[in-house]
Amino acid sequence: MDVRPGGPGAARTAAHPHRAHCPGGPAPGEVALERQQYIVAQAAQVPEIRRPTKPTYGSRQRRLEGKALRSQVKATRRRVDDQAGNDRERKRSPLSPIGAARRRWQ
Are residues 11 and 39 in contact, defined by beta-carbon separation less than 8 angstroms? Predict the structure, then answer.
C-alpha cells in the first residue's frame, strides 16, 4: 500500500498490478478504492475519551491495611534504642567517608 499526500486534503492509494493476472479476482483499481475508503473511515472515527475511575472504598481500605501491616513489620525490625528515642550518634569507622567529611568540617 502506498499513501502519499497529493496536495491539500488529497491522498493517493496504489495497488499492485499483478492482481490483474489473478482470474476471477478484483481489479487493482477496486482494491485501491476499497483501501482508500477504509483509510478515510478509520481517520474519521473519533476515539472515546478515557475517563479515569476512582478506586473503590474497599480497595482503599485494603491498601491502608496493607500499609499499616508493613509499618508494624518494619517497626519490629528496629533496634530497641531507636524506638526509645535515644539520640546518641552511631559509631562510624574512622575510615568511613561520612566520618571523614564530618571531621573535615569540624
Answer: yes
Read off the pTM.
Answer: 0.34
Q: Report pLDDT for 27.
A: 75
19-54 per-residue burial string, b: 16 or more CB within 10 A, e: under 16: eeeeeeeeeeeebbeebbeeeeeeeeeeeeeeeeee
**Residue 81 CB contacts under 8 Å (≥ 6 apart), including other chains:** 88
3-state class of 11 per DSSP?
strand
Residue of 38, 26, 47 whose CA lies nearest to 1: 38
User: What residue ranges of the chain have pLDDT lower than 70?
Assistant: 1-11, 13-26, 80-106
Name which of 42, 35, 40 is nearest 10 in CA terms.
Answer: 40
Rounded to an integer, what distance in angstroms lies between the CA atom of residue 55 and that of residue 75? 28
Can you give the pLDDT at residue 92?
Answer: 60
